[in-house]
Design a protein that fits this description.
Helix content is 44%, strand content 11%. The protein is built from 13 helices and five strands.
Length: 359
């Protein structure tokens, strides 16, 4: 490579002004600084440490500057070109914001916009197809849409009933939260099995996970109760989910929240307010008899087909993610013990209608 002469004072001034201006990109600034450092006689290893450029790149940058001036240091600007006109882009954005696909009169049966539906709409109306999905993402962004994975909803769910339950229950929960003698518990049950469950994991490229699975199917049940005021979980392993087992669990739960103090003296409070679903084993006669005899247990029921209202559902999901997913379960009893152990030692800050344990 032909050796370049030293920079003139005019060139040095030009480079310094370029570095101090607001227009250049970070890469362009680094290139200009590299040329100045080299001209000043800075050691190549120091320039490499400061800029990251190797020896050949350092001398090439100075050569480019001598040949083309500041243009030799500038990055190539990519000109943005849209296949759609400004007017068409505005029309599409307004359509996305104001109409779902199934109201466009184009035989779409989708109540929600997807990338594929938008691409087909633009092709049919404007005769244009983008090569990259990014262009469609930008249109959604312009319409102030965000990406969501649809949640599951049961066909028999009554949304009016759910909304009514939320309104009525929120007022009652607010009152119970203010009462220091009331324990608020969200309850539910889960079935653990020897069948391996999976969730997505991140691995290095070209690495593929393999998890051994069992050919034998065995089940265990776990009852769980989340204390909404403290975030404390109390869970119990059982063989089945029946009113007999539920009654036993309630007796154990009462021992965890006794009506007597440490000296055995009865106290005024320790009322248990339990919210759970309408499962038959929750409403069984033995369960109701025990609740009546206790005198300090009250049960409320979540609306039908609305599991997302119950924070205990989120507790199950977190615990399964931490303990049982992607794992070969050879000993179900041990796996159940590990699962219950994780639950009972972990604090869960999930909320019910906006009320939850404080950090």
């Amino acid at each position: 490579m032909k050796r370049c002469p030293k920079l003139t004072e005019e060139q040095k001034k030009e480079l310094r002004l370029f570095v101090e201006s607001q227009g250049p990109t970070g890469t362009e600034l680094k290139r200009a600084q590299t040329v100045l450092l080299l001209d000043k006689g800075e050691a190549i290893e120091n320039i490499n440490f400061i800029t990251g450029y190797h020896r050949r790149q350092i001398f090439e940058l100075r050569q480019w500057y001598w040949q083309r001036g500041l243009e030799g240091l500038r990055s190539r600007r990519k000109t943005k070109r849209s296949l759609l006109t400004t007017s068409q882009l505005g029309e599409i954005t307004r359509t996305i914001k104001t109409k779902p696909p199934d109201e466009l009169g184009l035989d779409y049966h989708h109540p929600f916009w997807t990338t594929a539906v938008l691409a087909d709409f633009i092709r049919r109306i404007y005769g244009i197809r983008y090569k990259s999905k990014t262009s469609y993402y930008l249109l959604f962004k312009e319409a102030k849409f965000t990406y969501h994975k649809p949640g599951r909803i049961y066909h028999q769910r009554n949304e009016e009933e759910v909304l009514r339950w939320r309104k009525q229950t929120r007022e009652r929960i607010m009152k119970a939260f203010k009462d220091p003698e009331t324990i608020i518990l969200a309850g539910d049950e889960i079935i653990l099995s020897t069948q391996t469950t999976f969730q997505k994991i991140w691995l290095p490229t070209n690495k593929y996970p393999k998890v051994e699975i069992s050919n034998v199917r065995k089940n265990r049940s776990v009852y769980g109760f989340l204390n909404l005021k403290t975030g404390k979980e109390t869970s119990y392993p059982t063989e089945k989910q029946t009113m007999v087992e539920t009654t036993k669990v309630l007796k154990d739960l009462r021992r965890s929240y006794p009506k007597k103090d440490n000296q055995g003296i009865k106290t005024k409070g320790k009322k248990l307010l339990i919210l759970w679903d309408n499962a038959g084993w929750h409403r069984g006669s033995l369960v109701q008899d025990y609740i009546k005899r206790d005198g300090k247990i009250e049960t409320w029921y979540f609306p039908a087909y609305a599991p997302e209202e119950n924070p205990q559902e989120h507790v199950w999901k977190e615990a399964r993610s931490q303990v049982t997913h992607n794992r070969f379960i050879e000993n179900l009893d041990q796996a159940t013990k590990d699962f219950v152990g994780y639950l009972n030692k972990t604090r869960f800050l999930y909320s019910l209608l906006g009320f939850s344990a404080k950090m």
